[in-house]
Specification:
This protein has 493 residues and is mostly helical. Helices cover 77% and strands 2% of the residues. The protein is built from 21 helices and 4 strands. It has helices at residues 3-18, 21-37, 41-44, 46-54, 66-77, 80-93, 96-121, 135-143, 148-164, 169-183, 200-217, 220-255, 264-275, 283-302, 309-313, 321-350, 360-370, 375-408, 413-429, 435-459, 461-492; strands spanning 124-125, 131-132, 190-193, 196-199. A two-stranded antiparallel sheet has the order 1-2. Strands 3-4 form a two-stranded antiparallel sheet. Strand 1 (124-125) and strand 2 form a beta hairpin. Helix 5 packs across helix 18 and helix 18 (375-408) packs antiparallel against helix 19. The longest helix is centred in the middle third of the chain and has 36 residues, at 220-255. The chain is globular, with a radius of gyration of 22 Å. The protein starts with a helix and ends with a helix.
Length: 493
């Protein structure tokens, strides 16, 4: 075994260690704890959250609108995890992995709400209006200066996730794979680089992507938010429509043959969650694999508990921490409970998860089989969605990484600019990393970033509950006054 083989073996082993049962339990316990303490807030206030999502505050303080902050956060979350990550999880852990992804997302909505609330409450705003906030500040300012070391750990691994995890390698690898699979699936046009043969489609897409990323990230948060506000909503709607077409088309076909088979995909997902997949081994072992892959990919996709989204939430123009927490919560709902579920159902319904394919090829096969279009049209549509999702994720994570560096180096902008260029270099080399190594590295950095943030959420839970109670009471009074005013106007009319 060569040196690269030994490195891959070590990465795989370490990934299994950090994403073992202790971290899985910590993530679930945090989500359950906050869900209980907040009284199922993600159910009771989801409607309000969706309303606040598109209704910006006029007199709030910050650098971007609440919707702009959400789109920046969504730009970083809606990416290859929604398309490639779901496929990878179901392929490794069986359809049951999707169940654990959804359950984790439901609990994660309370976690994401808490992160957004704390981000606004403990953020700092300079005299020139520059905002900096996130877990590093709610650890330092909320838990106390004596825990600054924990904030530094989070910021270090946060910058690492951007460079070596979610931000670059996984996204660029997903883009280049999708482009190559569409334009040169048989590797007919190749060039020798770094001792391996790569398709020209991979090389060209890498160069174009690097230039586009450089043009946007050099413009900072406002340019990133502006691009995200346009691209993210459009591509999310397009992707959901395509997935709905797959489900409607296949359900219609099933209805014509066997009525009892309609809920078969859902039954398979739930059953597999507790019995596991035959591909993963014995019942108990395969159930653990389904949990591990589902939770890991769920966190990778929606980033609840990871501590990334509050960095964007802190920049929102708002004066109500709890209000921005509700807006942040919708990110997890849209990302996983809507988009990832659509991907998972498409894969399970079409049966492409156990065909021996890998990564984006699984979802591509599902779209080709499930959509009532020629395969080339289905492949092109999925490629476009993946490219734009991944592109915006690259932009969002550059912002996260820069803010982490800004905290680590006491707002030294020279370090931030150096990170920015290093980030662009990582985008350039991303396509030349192996798929397995890329996802394992991303998982490791996710875990090491999540631990300090989860500790802070648990430690500051009293603050979260207090702020939530004050906001909801104020909200109830305002709604009561509006109903009274409406009734008086109706009487006068």
């Amino acid at each position: 075994m060569g040196i690269f083989g030994r490195i891959d073996t070590f990465i795989t082993w370490f990934d299994g260690v950090v994403w073992g049962l202790p971290l899985i339990i910590l993530i679930l316990v945090t989500g359950i704890f906050l869900t209980v303490r907040l009284g199922l807030l993600q159910v009771r206030y989801l409607g309000k959250a969706l309303k606040f999502m598109v209704k910006n505050e006029e007199d709030g303080h910050g650098e971007v609108t609440s919707f702009g902050a959400l789109c920046t956060a969504l730009s970083a979350t809606i990416g290859t995890g929604n398309i490639v990550g779901v496929a990878t999880a179901i392929s490794a852990g069986g359809p049951g992995a999707l169940f654990w992804m959804i359950l984790t997302a439901f609990l994660g909505m309370a976690t994401k709400y808490s992160e957004g609330l704390l981000a606004v409450k403990y953020r700092t705003i300079d005299e020139d209006g520059h905002v900096l906030g996130g877990p590093f500040y709610y650890i330092e300012n909320g838990m106390g200066v004596k825990f600054r070391w924990l904030a530094k750990i989070f910021a270090f691994f946060g910058a690492g996730v951007g460079l070596f995890g979610i931000g670059t390698f996984t996204q660029v690898n997903g883009i280049s794979s999708a482009v190559r699979n569409f334009f040169d699936p048989n590797m007919a046009h190749t060039v020798a680089l770094f001792g391996n043969d790569y398709s020209w489609a991979t090389v060209i897409s890498c160069l174009v992507l690097t230039v586009c990323v450089g043009m946007v990230v050099l413009g900072g948060i406002k340019r990133i938010a502006k691009v995200s506000e346009i691209v993210v909503p459009f591509m999310a709607v397009l992707y959901v429509v395509l997935a709905v077409i797959i489900m409607v088309t296949n359900i219609t076909a099933i209805l014509l043959t066997n009525l009892s088979a309609v809920p078969a995909a859902i039954v398979t997902i739930v059953k597999s969650a507790f019995t596991g997949s035959a591909l993963a081994g014995g019942a108990m072992g395969s159930m653990i694999v389904a949990m591990q892959k589902g939770i890991a990919r769920g966190i990778f996709s929606n980033e609840s508990g990871l501590g990334s989204a509050p960095i964007a939430a802190a920049a929102a123009q708002t004066k109500e921490p709890a209000r921005q927490g509700l807006v942040s919560m919708t990110g997890t709902f849209i990302d996983t409970i809507v988009i990832c579920t659509m991907t998972g159902l498409s894969i399970v319904i079409t049966g492409t998860w156990n065909t021996g394919l890998e990564g984006v090829e699984i979802t591509t096969a599902a779209f080709q089989k499930g959509l009532p279009f020629p395969p080339v049209v289905a492949s092109f549509a999925l490629m476009i969605c993946l490219v734009f999702f991944a592109f915006t994720t690259i932009l969002g994570w550059d912002y996260y990484g820069e803010r982490c560096l800004e905290y680590l180096f006491n707002k030294n902008m020279k370090a931030v600019r150096a990170y920015r260029w290093l980030y662009i270099i990582c985008v350039f080399i991303g396509p030349y990393m192996t798929v397995a190594a890329v996802w394992n590295i991303a998982d490791i950095f996710n875990a090491l970033m999540a631990i300090p943030n989860l500790i802070a959420l648990l430690a500051l839970s009293k603050v979260i509950v207090k702020e939530t109670k004050a906001f909801t009471e104020k909200l109830n009074v305002e709604e009561k006054n509006q109903r009274i005013l409406k009734g008086m106007n109706a009487e006068n009319a």
